[in-house]
Design goal:
The complex is a heterodimer of chains A (294) and B (341). With 294 residues, chain A is an alpha/beta fold. Chain A is built from ten helices and 15 strands. Chain A is 31% helix and 29% strand. In chain A, a hairpin with a 2-residue loop joins strand 4 (58-63) and strand 5. The chains are: A alpha/beta (294), B alpha/beta (341).
């Protein structure tokens, strides 16, 4: 597989702020690459530099081995986090307008079907719900049969059902061999959709790799969760990594049986204990220390 | 309730003060307006009428007749009789007078200002024995509506092109639509050409419709070629849209864009001869008027409609409009930015 996209040492400075601070990564063709991080981490700025809509202070972007330029614009599809469309156009007119801007054309009817826009085609694009609008933005990003698609926070503001529907759509795009760059602050979304991820914080990449590999390399064992209010005594003597996050105590344990034995005398209600696999949320909290560490 | 009003009041004021372009504009606008109007209409107060004095010399001697001592009338020396008649016909002079041995005056019977200027002349003349003879200008008099129609169509075209393109492009930039387009293979020049073409078609349809309706209902004068008039409209429209694009090339605030567009459009409306002729105005004012596209559009349209001018006759104005368009488009494309960055 070729390297579809490479970002080399991207920097973006605003007066008094370094929004992107030396970001580099490579994306293999046909994979889904996730750029993760909290709001304000620099994900959108990084992606907009790559897309060519925000000039970088320093750094280069390579598309299939050459500096991103005309070919990149022709072959990339972009779904912005927030954007405006031409007013007073219907959904179909909007799609047709954007399609005419490219030499490459996808089958519009297939996109309409894939994005479930069939019943909305004659509706004014300003009169769509949040989920419908996101589907239209995605459809606009696909009109040129892109080899590379950028999805910037595509499910922000959507309800759980709409999010899951969107994931199905993204999987379908990926199944066609399209490379995807996804930015999101939903760690579960990244885990489900991405082959590789890079976690950003304060403008820098602080970890990267395949999600499961990252977790395996960092964690051995499982996470035991219990509500803080159920603890009758402190956790002194519990020989495991412990976090407290929004009223939930998380214990990283390599030996769940012995951990539960040690916990039992200190917990009022054992029925509320949960045991789960470590996830990217744990990794992020672990890496950034944004949670209270006990 | 007051707390809520105060919160919104404070937020809006902060927005206004921190938008430096708009703030600067709001301070500069009245200053520019006051000094601009003082420059254009400076002197002893704005004259109400313009009277041509037919004579061989270029200096007017107020001792020739008491009428020449009247205040608030611009007296313009006219050395060529035919030229003087033409200006009266075309409402560029309210009255043409000749003193000396054969005292005569010429007035366009269709001119309201000519009527009042004539009253003033006859009143003054009565003081010295009433010797002025009224003379006829041969041919059909040109009505004020014939003269003002190109002005109104030109003004409508100007506002449609400047605001319809300039203001809209700023709105596109502000709401992120330009950013969305930037992520496509669309080039700035292609975007600009599309904007020019879109507005051109729209303005041509509207202007043609209004012109034809007026022409049919009011039987307005048309001595020249419709094709030449269409060419004037096309070239004029392109120059106006180009100017709008230049103004909108980088601006991100609708308030600032509105201010800048008004700063351009209002002087054009006043100095380009939409409602009244600037005959008799100082050379500096006329020079300023000549850099405005609207002046050349109206001069050309009136020449075609009222004088039957050919394309060759209006070639200097057409060339000027083309040069202005090229300059506006080149600068607009050079300064154009998709986003605020």
């Amino acid at each position: 597989m070729q390297i579809a996209l490479e970002a080399r040492n991207l920097v973006k400075r605003y007066p008094g702020v370094v929004a992107v601070d030396g970001v580099s990564f490579k994306v293999t063709e046909g994979t889904c690459f996730g750029l993760l991080g909290p709001n304000g981490a620099g994900k959108t700025t990084t992606v907009e530099i790559i897309e060519g809509v925000t000039p970088a202070t320093a750094g280069e972007v390579y598309y299939f081995g050459e500096l991103a330029g005309r070919r990149f614009r022709e072959e990339a599809g972009i779904q912005f986090q927030n954007t405006a469309l031409q007013d007073f156009l219907t959904v179909r007119e909007t799609l047709e307008m954007f399609q005419k801007l490219y030499d490459r054309h996808a089958d519009l009817e297939r996109i309409i079907e894939d994005c479930s826009l069939g019943e909305l085609l004659n509706r004014d694009n300003r009169k769509l719900s949040g989920g419908q609008r996101q589907r239209l933005f995605l459809a606009v990003a696909l009109v040129n049969e892109p080899r590379l698609v950028f999805l910037d926070e595509p499910t922000t503001g959507l309800d759980p059902q709409a999010r899951r529907n969107f994931w199905t759509l993204v999987r379908r795009i990926k199944a066609n061999g399209t490379t995807i760059i996804l930015t999101t602050h939903y760690m579960d979304e990244a885990h489900v959709l991405c082959d590789e991820i890079a976690i950003m914080d304060a403008g820098k990449i602080i970890a990267s790799g395949a999600p499961d590999e990252l977790l395996r390399s960092r964690y051995e064992g499982l996470v035991i969760e219990l509500p803080l209010e159920d603890l009758s005594r402190d956790l002194d003597g519990i020989d495991h990594v412990v976090y407290e996050n929004q009223g939930i105590v998380e214990i990283m344990s390599t030996d769940v049986s012995s951990s539960l034995e040690a916990l039992a005398p200190r917990v009022q209600n054992l029925n509320r204990i949960k045991i789960r696999q470590p996830n990217l949320e744990d990794l992020f909290l672990d890496l950034t220390g944004h949670s209270l560490r006990s | 309730m007051l707390k809520r009003i105060y919160a919104v009041f404070l937020a809006r004021n902060r927005e206004f003060v921190r938008d430096r372009g708009t703030l600067a504009w709001n301070i500069l606008m009245p200053v520019i307006l006051v000094f601009g109007l003082a420059f254009v209409f400076g002197g002893e107060g704005r004259s109400q009428y313009t009277v041509g004095v037919l004579q061989s010399s270029s200096e007017i001697d107020a001792a020739d007749h008491p009428f020449l001592e009247s205040r608030y009338i611009d007296f313009v020396p006219v050395t060529d009789e035919t030229d003087g008649f033409r200006k009266v016909e075309r409402h560029r002079l309210d009255l043409l007078v000749r003193f000396g041995d054969e005292r005569r005056y010429w007035v366009n019977p269709e001119s309201p200002t000519g009527y009042f200027a004539e009253r003033l002349l006859l009143q003054s003349d009565a003081e010295v024995g009433g010797q002025m003879q009224k003379a006829q200008i041969s041919g059909d008099p040109i009505r004020y509506v014939d003269w003002v129609l190109p002005g109104i169509l030109g003004m409508n075209m100007m506002f449609s092109c400047l605001f319809g393109v300039g203001y809209v492009v700023v709105r596109y930039r502000k709401n992120g639509f330009l950013k969305r387009l930037r992520a496509t293979p669309l080039r700035p020049a292609e975007f600009i050409v599309a904007q020019v073409a879109s507005r051109l078609v729209l303005v041509l349809i509207v202007t043609t419709f209004v012109y034809l309706a007026t022409h049919v209902i009011l039987d307005t004068r048309m001595d020249g070629s419709y094709l030449t008039l269409l060419l004037v409209t096309v070239v004029g429209c392109i120059s106006m849209v180009s100017l709008g694009l230049l103004i909108a090339a980088r601006v991100t605030s609708e308030e600032l864009a509105g201010g800048l567009l008004n700063m351009i459009s209002w002087p054009m409306m006043i100095l380009s001869g939409v409602w009244f002729s600037l005959e008799g105005a100082g050379p500096a004012v006329q020079g300023l008027a000549n850099i405005f596209p609207l002046t050349h559009i109206l001069d050309s349209a009136r020449a075609v409609m009222l004088d039957g001018a050919t394309l060759l006759d209006i070639a200097p104005s057409m060339i000027m409009l083309t040069l202005l368009s090229l300059a506006f488009l080149a600068l607009g494309a050079f300064y154009f930015r998709w986003g605020p960055d």
